[in-house]
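Researcher: If convenient, please comment on what follows.
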Amino acid sequence: MMTNDHSTVLATMVFNLVVPAGVVAPVGVELRYDSRNPYEICMKLNVGKAGQVDWVIARDLLADGLVAEAGEGDVRIGPRLDFPRLIVIALSSPSGQATFEVNADQLVEFLNDTYDAVAPGDEHRWMSVDEALSRLLPHNL
């Protein structure tokens, strides 16, 4: 594990929330990548007075979604068919669903910064399997 070289990558950008009738509403978003959790990207969506909504997505899912439709279920990402420089991110949960569009170049820049922190394929070198298992398993075995 490379804990001494820990790093965090942050980016703020605006996602466009697409609502019925084609109306678009800007939503401030913070993307965070932490080398201590090298497989995930955290998204904090600013939803105004209601606060924020947090989502965690796989870094590989974001990368795959930049070039083709990716994801199943709660998170789907892919280029917009008629304008591929826009990426569509569709999120769904029991409490609702939302579809966003974001400039592909911004996501590529963020993703490249995460690759500078932890190279693709090296994620396992940044994790402590014992620590991850202790969070997942009950301690009274």
Notes: The mean pLDDT is 89. DSSP finds three helices and seven strands in the chain.
